[in-house]
Fold this protein.
Amino acid sequence: MTTAADFTFTDYKPYDFANRRHIGPSPSEMAAMLAVLGYESLDALIDDTVPPSIRQTEPLAWGPAMTEREALDTMRETANRNRKLVSLIGQGYYGTITPPVIQRNILENPAWYTAYTPYQPEISQGRLEALLNYQTMVCDLTGLDVANASLLDEATAAAEGMAMAERVAKSKATAFFVDENCHPQTIALLKTRAEPLGWTIVIGDPFADLDPAAVFGAIFQYPGTYGHVRDVSGLISNLHVQGAIAVVAADPLALALLKSPGDMGADIAIGCTQRFGVPVGYGGPHAAYMAVKDVYKRSMPGRLVGVSVDSRGNRAYRLSLQTREQHIRREKATSNICTAQVLLAVMASMYAVFHGPQGIKAIAQSVHQKTVRLAMGLEKLGYTVEPDVFFDTITVDVGRLQSVILKSAVAQEVNLRRIGTTKIGISLDERSRPVTLEAVWRAFGGDFQVADFEPGYRLPKSLLRTSEYLTHPIFHMNRAESEMTRYIRRLSDRDLALDRSMIPLGSCTMKLNATAEMLPITWPEFAEIHPFVPVDQAEGYRHMITDLGEKLCTITGYDAISMQPNSGAQGEYAGLLTIRAYHIANGDVHRDVCLIPTSAHGTNPASAQMAGMKVVVVKVSDNGDIDMADFRAKAGQYAANLSCCMITYPSTHGVFEENVREVCEIVHQNGGQVYMDGANMNAMVGLARPGDIGSDVSHLNLHKTFCIPHGGGGPGMGPIGVKAHLAPYLPGHPETDGGDGAVSAAPFGSASILPISWSYCLMMGGEGLTQATKVAILNANYIAARLKGAYEVLYKSARGRVAHECIIDTRPLVDSAGVTVDDVAKRLIDCGFHAPTMSWPVAGTLMIEPTESETKAELDRFCDAMLAIREEARAIEEGRMDRTNNPLKNAPHTVEDLVGEWDRPYSREQACFPPGAFRVDKYWSPVNRVDNVYGDRNLVCTCPPLEDYAEAAE
Ligand SMILES: *Cc1c(COP(=O)(O)O)cnc(C)c1O
């Protein structure tokens, strides 16, 4: 029976949860947490935590927050302002078909896209296998021995190739030769990277202008940007005679038909796997690759997946060698690559699994065949088609007709490439259809049908591929979609991502990546726009980039922003180059000293090194703050040559330092600029602005604070905000302003993931963003309070508060119980958690960052697990548990541990179901503890042999 009360309207608005989407704790949970901390209100906690001297005065005000539906409508309208034509522009970006099974089950699947970088191998076996497949695919296609997974884009990969060549070459020359057939954006990046390091770039025709004795290396594009397919073996041998290194930039699809770079003698191959199923997305993200000869593997930048064994001797994957290169080598690091393009590398590897070698070859052949057909039609019309032999790209000299034909093509809904003032470039791809060819012919004044031509190969016989590729069984599995779906599912099930539990990784801000924010990125009007289309076809993108940029300026207190850098580390590099250019413009060519505290993230000194700066390390005092006396002394000592300082705020120790304004003033007084690393913006948005505190430039990790998912180690976006005086020195790009200093292949970096950050800002509104910051601080302080007594929180403010993260000390357990930070991290896996950031910025500690997204229940589950681990250590301390044979040392436990003999001095129940672990939904680590040393000693970086694949390859 209903009562009258059922017919009265309530105040409850069903969709009024704009802020609750991102904010985990409910109002009552927040009240309970504040009570634990002893505060009446959230604002009282914030007032006690964020120093008044840095608080921003004006709230973030840009109108009310949008609902989910309003935001999606806005995204739809914005998408519709992009004009989706067929782009045959090529130049490194090609149409491709993402197999739907990969789009839905990987790109649109939080089990894949919310995962973290696989530093904890036991909970990352799925993505590590996919990445090993990627490396195997790249090695096979390039004919080289070892490949990494992955680099940011083809142009940065070329720059990394050059830098690596300089390191390993016997030649002592200081010049690098660049094939004029490289893509223009690749040439631009090579110039950017070479200039501060004092290397000369020589651009020319390698067959006419290359003097191998004058260079430490050379790069050739294969096929060239205008289509040439040329054998560079002779040039490579000449380089080798002079102790110089050969880099080949190769299109992996072309390599299905062409002799591999390895077979031509190349030392290094680089390129991009975009056309293996990853949409162009107005420039990115896509995975670039690098493959090298075995002798150079230890000098290769980026991440390398290898095969090792676990404590039972079973096969297990892990990141090998230079896993955390910058953190270990710091200013001596050779590359600053941190976030890479893991999700996209996974997609490309699955594309190869999906198609297999025959499928890839068939796609390559079909692309070539279409291109020959197109050329035949154009020749019939009387045009001269260059070059004689080509794969998928041709260049047509059309003289004064250039603009007319380009315009006529656009009228046929096709974009062609403008080359100089008289030529047109055309690149065909997997998506090109007969109607596409016919439209191009019409644009050139021809009325043909594809059946009018009988194409034959136009590839040089001597360069046809004879070696096999993708021979491993993984590329020969039964590709019924049921099997593909299950393979993808099996791999993701091995991993622990945000769709299962919180990932409390200090500094990495693993927050919610809301579904509504993710939806637009696969809409064709965002995904299928070539980065070099005419501006009027990308109005939606331009509008979004402008509006998001303005919002980020408001949030940070900067005046201008560059969206070009496609990772935080690239942002650092771009920001330092901006500072450098500013000094040079002021005549201060000599200013090259960069002050960096010892606590800085490893990418900071690595980026400074790449920008040609001299790193001077500044001490950190016992309480974790910058040592002001040392800072002042060093700034004074190097005043004449001071370029800048790099500081992180709140500090990497998770504290709002009171003296940050003073730090900025000291640097300015000594003629330097302030670079504030913005990775910790999640503690500041709406409360404090770097620009107000005195900083001149910062990068923002949109894949941390602004909700772009980590993708298992990328993609990311690292735009930089600057004060007005630095704005003229922001990176240019050959395809937009023709300016110098490009740091990414595409003018707006990985533009296609910007809808995520933009919709986050729109759905939160200024008020919601500020609330998120406050709750992030509340959650961190709550964890610190709950763990009190069990673990010491290493750094706190004078008032006893932490910022948005806290570092807990596990070092005392080493002496008292023989328990290492590793043991704690691995035991957390049994409890169903990804470990916090381990041993950074202080060895032997854990840095916990819960973010605002986690509910009190989830925080409590994590704290319960941490407290139980402390009790297990206590049992060891008190002699109730064995020092070597205990649940901490034997963690993680697998299903294998449950069957067969059990002779351990603790129960299976205790082993597998410690506090925190779910019973029904228990996460089972697929391997026991992985042996790191074994993996580095016995380096295997491609898929292991068939026997090991009993399950996967059936
Ligand atoms: C994550 C991080 C970086 C590097 O960002 P990437 O996007 O991984 O290159 C730099 N500094 C700090 C403090 C960070 O936490």
